[in-house]
Write a structure and sequence with these properties.
Subcellular location: Cell inner membrane; Cell membrane
Largest sheet: 6 strands, mixed
CATH architecture of the largest domain: 4-Layer Sandwich
GO biological process, one term: lipoprotein biosynthetic process
Organism: Acidiphilium cryptum (strain JF-5)
CATH superfamily of the largest domain: Carbon-nitrogen hydrolase
Shape: globular
Number of strands: 11
Helix content: 40-55%
CATH class of the largest domain: Alpha Beta
Strand content: 5-15%
Number of domains: 2
CATH topology of the largest domain: Nitrilase/N-carbamoyl-D-aminoacid amidohydrolase
Number of helices: 17
Order of helices and strands: HHHHHHHHHHHHEHEHEEEEEHEEEEHH
Transmembrane segments: 23-50, 62-81, 93-121, 133-154, 174-195, 202-219, 490-508
Distance between the termini: 24 Å
Pfam families: CN_hydrolase, LNT_N
């Protein structure tokens, strides 16, 4: 009897049903996510899940068990979404009990495809069990791809993020993302954790897979940190309270704080070509159209480029959540409008009949864009939520020299949310082979090299300034070139290999 089965035998009889067991297995799987990183649990959870799916007795039952697993997994993995409701409890108190369960309810459906793939395989011999592992891993990747694009997309709680822990081993284990993105990390995780289903030989095969995986990562990072450019980046982390006051005195105080931190950042950075970054919506002024605000920045920064989060009023009268580049007293030299808006927070999806977003929401920008700001390397901006979308964050026709993610994670407090967001954003650097600079209002701010190596951070709930040299980009990676197509191919052919094993299994029966 496996350790999981022994534990299940101690549970009260009314909770021993396999639906409850799969729900509990999902909860256990979630503790492998950042910031817990209790990865060994997966080597017991995945075989236990595959065993229960194999004896489901019918495809509807298998789909139900898969959903129960997904619900438990996402319920614990997404509990942080209630934090904004708690911050604004006077208006949204009614949503607190429903936010995380409702989102977990929806995302749990993405576990049905892997569950059905496993159920379709009779696990009566070693070939059948291997087929189940392969089909589960491949289907999980394809399901993750669907999760990125369907219903506006929400690519969160992917198993590949489980390997973003600190240290040389963690750095090595995330390197396959350069080939197949976070999806390949998920595929390898599901394979390695599922192989113990085959018994002792499976445990040995899992160990070999992990050794080869780590070896590839250590070889790819053996040269050490990427070389540095001559550009110094200064990141402002003001730690403004949210939602904050919108009275004139409060906005003026916020503006003075922005300018004071900018002056302090330039003093600390010293001489040289510097770049100053303000986080998402840091500016209370509309920088694109407010000449007086740009002049105030120029009085502090001179001709040093300032890349600032700001609202922007477009020519059609729509409001945008933007990054505006200011350089000297003249007009804004460039801007970028966020195009992946947060559903219900920043806009209401078209398929929802009622407009529930406060103030009517924002209008999305046209898509990924590379900004060419005079005097600094070309930059690919990302605003908050956009950094969680692998493979679609850069302009494929105009590859930037670095990525910049500005955000405001103060809405999620000191929960798992900011840590998970940082882990996922870090993987974008590995996938694209590009350094990424992360500047948030309340942390975690960081400078990250193109291998995912963190060069410097400023932690949660701290006000301050982070200064670092901008690393040099790597040549375009396979994932950077082929995007999610590469991930889809890997997932599909893993399933094909699973079908081959299934045919062998049937032949041997």
């Amino acid at each position: 009897m496996s350790p999981i089965d022994q534990l299940a035998a101690r549970v009260p009889r009314r909770l021993r049903g396999e639906a409850w067991q799969c729900f509990a297995l999902g909860l256990l799987a979630a503790v492998a996510l950042p910031p817990f990183y209790l990865l060994p649990v997966l080597w017991f959870v995945v075989p236990a899940l595959l065993t229960r799916l194999a004896r489901a007795g019918g495809w509807r039952r298998a789909a139900w068990l898969g959903w129960c697993f997904g619900f438990g997994f996402n319920l614990l993995g997404l509990f942080w979404v209630t934090e904004p409701m708690l911050i604004m409890a006077s208006n949204f108190w009614w949503a607190v009990p429903f936010a995380a369960p409702a989102l977990a309810f929806a995302t749990a459906f993405y576990m049905i495809l892997p569950a059905l793939a496993v159920f379709a395989v009779p696990q009566r011999n070693q070939a059948g069990r291997l087929a189940a592992v392969l089909l589960f891993a491949g289907a999980l990747v394809l399901s993750n791809l669907a999760q990125e694009f369907l219903f506006t997309g929400f690519p969160w709680n992917y198993w590949g993020a489980d390997w973003t822990f600190a240290g040389r081993l963690g750095l090595a284990m995330i390197q396959p993302a350069a080939i197949g993105g976070i999806f390949l990390l998920t595929l390898l995780t599901a394979l390695a954790a599922g192989l113990p289903l085959l018994g002792r030989r499976g445990w040995a095969a899992s160990a070999v897979l992990l050794a080869l995986w780590a070896g590839f990562g250590f070889a790819r990072t053996s040269a050490g940190p990427a070389p540095l450019t001559r550009y110094t980046v200064a990141l402002l982390q003001p730690d403004f309270a949210v939602p904050g006051s919108f009275t004139q005195p409060a906005l003026q105080a916020r503006w003075r704080r922005d300018l004071a931190l900018t002056r302090e950042a330039l003093d600390k950075a010293g001489k040289g070509p510097n770049i100053v970054v303000w986080p998402e919506t840091a500016s209370p002024a509309l920088l694109q159209t407010d000449a007086a605000a740009r002049a105030a920045i120029a009085a502090v920064a001179g001709n040093t480029p300032v890349l600032a989060g700001s609202f922007r009023l477009a020519a059609d009268g729509s409001m945008r959540n933007s990054l505006v580049a200011v350089e000297g007293k003249g007009p804004a030299v460039a801007w970028y409008d966020k195009w992946k808006l947060v559903p219900f927070g920043e806009y209401t999806p078209a398929w929802i009949p009622l407009k529930v977003t406060p103030g009517g929401g924002f209008t999305p920008g046209p898509g990924p864009r590379t900004l060419h700001v005079p005097g600094i390397p070309s930059v690919g901006p990302l605003i908050c939520y956009e950094s969680i979308f692998p493979g679609i964050i850069t302009d494929p026709k105009d590859r930037p020299a670095w990525l910049l993610n500005i955000s405001d994670n103060a809405w999620f407090g000191d929960t798992t949310g900011p840590y998970q967001d940082f882990a996922t954003t870090r993987l974008r650097a590995v996938e694209e082979g590009l350094p990424i600079v992360v500047d948030t209002n309340s942390g975690i701010s960081a400078v990250i090299g193109p291998h995912g190596r963190v060069a410097g951070t400023l932690g949660l709930d701290r006000a301050g300034i982070l200064i670092g040299k901008l690393p040099v980009a790597l040549p375009v990676t396979p994932f950077g070139r082929f995007s999610v197509t590469m991930s889809g191919i890997l997932g599909f052919y893993t399933m094909v290999l699973g079908v081959v094993c299934l045919i062998v299994s049937i032949t041997l029966m």
